[in-house]
Amino acid sequence: MPKIVARNIEGSLRDRIAAGEWSTAGRLPAERDLAAEYGVARNTVRRAVNAIASDGTVARQVGRGTFLNGGTSELASILQSVTGVSPADLMAVRLIVEPHAAAIAAKNASLSDLQAIADAHQQATQALQTDEFEHWDTQFHQRLFAATRNELLVSIHGILQVIRRRNPWIELKRKSFSENRRLHYCEQHANVVAALENRDADGAAQAMQGHIEAIEVALFGRR
Predict the structure, then answer these.
(1) Architecture in CATH of 2-75
(2) Cα–Cα distance between 121 and 117 in angstroms, integer?
(3) Chain-centre distance of CA 176, in angstroms?
(4) Statement: the pTM of the whole predicted model exceeds 0.85
């Protein structure tokens, strides 16, 4: 479980670096700040950052922090351009990608993967604050993608997450959110979890598609 979480954080950090999130500062936030943001222990963040440092993307300087190494790759340029896409475009891609990811996860997930997904769902169900729910909702989808055991799909989800952290998406989500919708989303998550645990790929895809369509209706008031 910690290795899976560290790998997910590594992917997220790589996407954020490529998108230029910290290019102005030239360094990553402190480990304690990243740990608080991702809701994990500092050693989990340290494992993720060490993996990124191993290929020279960042350089760790004892007592000073973690600094970006210069250079903009073709992939980085592409990622930087897509982070400004509209919420409507984002939802269109989610409708394409996430049902298929759910189907693959139903086939490939280990028992620990399924437990991690179910735990995120349970935590989201029990969340009393909006920010707490948002965190566990993100974890639910992130852990589902990790359960596909497909690194490219995990990276694609990381790109979608970078876009979802941009202000246009955050503002739209905040305006459309309500307690009734939170409960409805949790019910839909439960349907996804049940299909995953039954190894029902078609059922998982259908449940996820219904969930993403419900989000789209909440955001835009249409289908």
Answers:
(1) Orthogonal Bundle (1.10)
(2) 6
(3) 20
(4) no
